[in-house]
Amino acid sequence: MDCDLQDPPEKIPELYAKLQEGFDLVMARRTDRSHSPARLFAAKAYFWLLSRMTGEKIDGSYGTLSILSRKVVDTFLRFGERERHYQFILRWLGFEVGSISYEHKERACGRSAYDLRRLLRHALNGLFFQAAILLRWIVGLGLLFAAGGIALAVYFTYRHFVYGSVVGWTSLAVLILVCTGTLLASMGIIGLYIGKIFEQTKARPLYIVDSVIEPASPW
After folding, report:
1. The whole model's pTM is what?
2. What is the CA radius of gyration of the chain?
């Protein structure tokens, strides 16, 4: 939970009681947030973009207020990534999740250490942590430019022979279009390999053991 008392400690017994119902972890959902309208709008835009990138609906109303079973804690500690995003890892684990609701309160005292620069860095880390889909978008953009460049190159060549053009202009335009598209597509393909390396260096476990069943005694 956050240390600024915006997450009420009074909810801890409720979290624990929900955990006793058989859930592996319990997350708390904020029914109302005490942030400025600009920050609320930025948060909604961020989670909308993140949902589009990952193909999963991510509810930004859930914060860090949560309670984990020992099994989830031990599994979480197996992740050796430097940039470990708490909520994203919990979602990736796939354990049974319970939920409670609470009202997000005003900050008790002091000022938040998260200024605009740190919030942006945190948001970018979340985007890059969650998926390498940006690299795929670069590939698509490069292929689009390459296709457009080839089409324009064919058109300019046709126009040169049919209608004529300034000497040297057609060859220069064709070279720029084709080379730019090829470079973008090539960089995107290299990016895909980097994305594979990125996923491999995380060294995440191949599977998570939910429960262990002891074999029955032959006696």
Report:
1. 0.62
2. 26
